[in-house]
Amino acid sequence: MEDQGTAKHPDRTAPVIEVHNISKRYGSVQALRDVSLSIYPGEIVGLVGDNGAGKSTLVNIIAGALQATSGELRIDGRPVHLKSPTDARAAGIETVYQDLALAPDLSIWANIFLGRERTRSGPLGWLGWLDRKTMMRETIEDLERTRIRISSVAARVGRLSGGQRQAVAVGRAVAWGSRVVLMDEPTAALGVEQQARVGELIRNVASQDIPVLLISHNLPQVHAICDRIVVLFHGRVIAELAPSEAPVEEIVSWITGAALLAGRETK
Length: 267
Fold this sequence. Notes:
- The chain is an alpha/beta fold.
- It folds into 2 domains: 181 residues, Rossmann fold (3-Layer(aba) Sandwich); 74 residues, no CATH class.
- The chain contains 10 helices and 10 strands.
- It has a 6-stranded mixed beta sheet with strand order 6-7-8-3-9-10, sandwiched between helices. A 4-stranded antiparallel beta sheet has the order 2-1-4-5, covered by helices on one side.
- Helix 6 runs parallel beside helix 7.
C-alpha cells in the first residue's frame, strides 16, 4: 500500500481472518477507506491510531456490530456476512470491550456462561434446571487454559479487582472465541501492575494459537507484546510495522501522520 511501512506476518499458515477493502460511510463521513488486514493463528496484532482514526469502527465490523458499506470479510479464506454480534460469536469471534460487559452480582462461572447456560439432561433440563457443576468445572478448565489464577469460580465478579475482572472477560472470550479474540482498550482503566497481568493474559491467549487483535493507546505495551502493529490514519491503513524494527517514537510519528508527510516529501 502506498506510503506504508512494512512488517512481516507469520509464514506458517493461512490467515484466520482477512479484511479486504473494507469501507464504511456515515452519510457524507468516510470512517474507513479500503482497509485490508490479515490476522494469522497465534499472532498478536496491535491496531493503533489517533481518536477518530477508525479503530473502533473496524473492530465493530469484524465483531458484527456494524456492517461495512463495501468490502469483504473472510474467515479461513471464505467470505462471511456477519449481520450481528451473534453471527460473529457463532463464527468464533469474541470481543472484549473496555467496559467488559460483566454482571457484577453474578459469580465468575455464571458470567462465563452468561447467555449460554447449560441445562441438565433429561426431564430436569426440559424444565430449565441449570447444570451448575458442569459449568463450574468447564469454567475452571477454561481459566486454566490461559493460566488465569482465581481462587474460586463461585466468587462474585463485583468483589474482584480490576485486573481479575479483565481476566474473567478474557477467559470468557477464550472459552467461546475459537477463531479470534478482539480486545478494545483492555487496560484503559487499570494500574501498571494490572496492565502487566493483562499483557501476560494476551500472550497466553496467543499461545493457544488463537490470534488477538488489540486496540490500545498504551503504546509501550503494544510495542512489547505485539507481533505486528497496524496504524490507521483518517480511516486508512498507512503502516504495518514490526516492533523489532520500529521504536515507539516511530509508531507515534505514523499515528500523528508525521511519517506519512515526511514520506511524501521525499518523493
